[in-house]
Amino acid sequence: MKNCLLLIAGVAACLSLGVPAAAAEPTIEIDAATRERCLVVLRNGLHGDDFWPAIHAAEGLTLGGYGAEVRQCLEPKLATEQDDQRRCGIARELVRAGDRSKSSVLLGILSSDNDHGHVHAAESLYKLNELGDGQAIRLGFAHTDNLRLRLMAAAALGRAGSPAALQVLRETLNDSDPEVARLAAWVLGRIGDPSDIARLKLRLSNSDDRLARAFFEHSLAALGDESGQQALTRNLTSDDATIRTFAATFAGDARMTDAASQLKKMLDDPHPDAAIRAAQSLLWMARKD
After folding, report:
1. CA gap 134, 99 in Å, rounded
2. Could you give the residue ranges of the DSSP H alpha helices within the chain?
């Protein structure tokens, strides 16, 4: 697929914080009807009963420039939610929507004796580019007995420039567990560099797990690889709803403006989270401020 610009991790790093695209980056035009349809999808998702799609919808609204209504909706929920994993999701989106004071919630959960929310807290801190004083995230990185926590801590530290953390992520691409390998790929697609293209292609060539292959392809796309972008375009019409959902998310990460027409079709996807992610990517790529 022809794409007007090959972008690497800087764009994806901005995406995770909801930072608007710079003027030099490619944008799309969406008409008023499409914008309204995106907002309907995201607002319905935000106020729906399915928790994590609601959190994804909050992200999409913030990326589209509607953070104020996200804060209004989520602030009361943070005060009543008891589950630490869900508290991480709420706090993360409140920070992304402009209330950085809520990063203390994430740091507190990561530092707590109850490990139920540790992975979610580390992942959220990575997405927000927030380390606090660094102590809790470094402890997470040292947890070799909890590989998912170590990977998410490595993501946060790697985004802050730690070569050791990036090395762990690159080594983990070769893990025999497809879920673990795809987590490493997911992060490298956002904070890696062009040298990771060869690593991802090699891992893709010896993987037969369908979802893991999609992650490798989407990360290649985010790093500007043309074959990865072609694969992502195909995955937008996958018969697997999970693959479609991640493809829609990565289309925005990669600033794949050529995917806009398919993303518009996905606003009516029968899988709600796929529609939410399509709306998110459309609004994100349409921002010019």
Report:
1. 20
2. 9-17, 32-46, 51-63, 67-80, 84-96, 103-111, 118-128, 135-141, 147-159, 163-172, 178-191, 195-205, 210-222, 226-235, 241-253, 260-265, 272-286
What is the C-alpha separation between 232 and 245, in angstroms, rounded?
11
| CA dist., res. 182 & res. 172, Å (int) | 9
Closest CA to 162 of 180, 142, 185: 142
Q: What are phi and psi of 106, to 5 degrees?
A: -65, -45
Which residues 6+ apart lie within 8 Å of 77 measured at CB?
A: 90
What region does 194 belong to: left with phi over 0, alpha with psi -120 to 50, or beta?
A: alpha
pLDDT digits (tens, 9 = 90+) for 265-284: 999 999 999 999 999 999 99
Looking at per-residue confidence, does 235 or 22 come out higher?
235
Contact indicator for 13, 159 with CB cutoff of 8 Å? yes
Interhelix angle 195-205/210-222, rounded to 10 degrees, is 160
**Rounded to the nearest 5°, which phi and psi values hold at 242?**
-65, -40
Contact 65, 289 (CB under 8 A): yes
Mean pLDDT of the chain: 92
Q: Locate tokens 């790697």: which residue?
A: 158
Give the pLDDT score at 14: 45
How far is residue 191's CA from residue 96's CA, in Å, rounded to a whole number?
18
- Sign for the CA dihedral angle at 46, 53, 159, 263 comes to negative
Q: How far is CA 178 from the centre of its chain?
A: 18
pTM of the model: 0.91
